[in-house]
Amino acid sequence: MSITTADKRATFRKLHETGCFVLPNPWDVGSAKALAHLGFKAIASTSAGFAWSIGKADNRVTLEDALAHLTALCDAVDLPVNADFEGGFAHKPEKVAANVARAVKTGVAGLSIEDSTGDAAKPLYERAFAIERIRAARAAIDADNSGVVLTGRCEGFLVGQPDLDMVIDRLRAYSEAGADCLYAPGIQTKEQIAAVVKAVDPKPVNLLQGWVGLSATEVADLGVRRISIGGSLARTAWGGFMRAAREIAEKGTFTEFGNGYPGGELNKMFG
């Protein structure tokens, strides 16, 4: 029996109920299939990783680019796919709602909405406006009873406003506005993580692990329900590519090829 979109969404919701799971971020169909092969229970898109794969900087991908990418990921694997939907590709709540409705149609099991503006002078949306954006996304998801998990993100730590009290206040407000899961990318210490988990309990918390830090077990012990890694796998892949390409360009040698993954193994995995 084939796995339906409804099955994926039910599975994704179930994953948020107990325990802690890692939600790795592929950047294309091949990396998505590889993560499925490795046994992960769900995956999430990465705005940065996808942008780099099509020769763009992060936050320069269009709505149409993102929707096509999400459709491809959902069609490629039998796993739930969570969408890094940036800021909803719009400012006004009603437009966020319209775009979220389109994202739901791609087959995603979850999506996140950020509160960053992209404006260095005023990096976060005004609190009440940010709440309305989450509320609009919630309404769009509920319009067809899709069951998509909505994650509310406060970007304070990523935009130079690392005020934990402010971040927690916003996350609580996003929870009340309908977010199923809460996310404060950039928090790193055990104290920060534990404070966020406690503040939004019983709602699940997503933690970004984009650097060498706490292990999955340590994070789980702090009460985190979901771990994502953003563009880190993509950066790791680009690291190998750039080291090998730079060696060829600068030295005319090819020693980095020895660190590549065996082509035969890749053929077996995708066969």
From TrEMBL:
It comes from the Bacteria. The keyword Lyase applies. The keyword Lyase applies. GO terms for molecular function: lyase activity. It holds the Pfam family PEP_mutase. Keywords: Lyase. InterPro entries: ICL/PEPM (IPR039556), Pyrv/PenolPyrv_kinase-like_dom (IPR015813), Pyrv_kinase-like_dom_sf (IPR040442). This is Methylisocitrate lyase. It comes from Bradyrhizobium erythrophlei. The lineage of its organism: Bacteria, Pseudomonadati, Pseudomonadota, Alphaproteobacteria, Hyphomicrobiales.
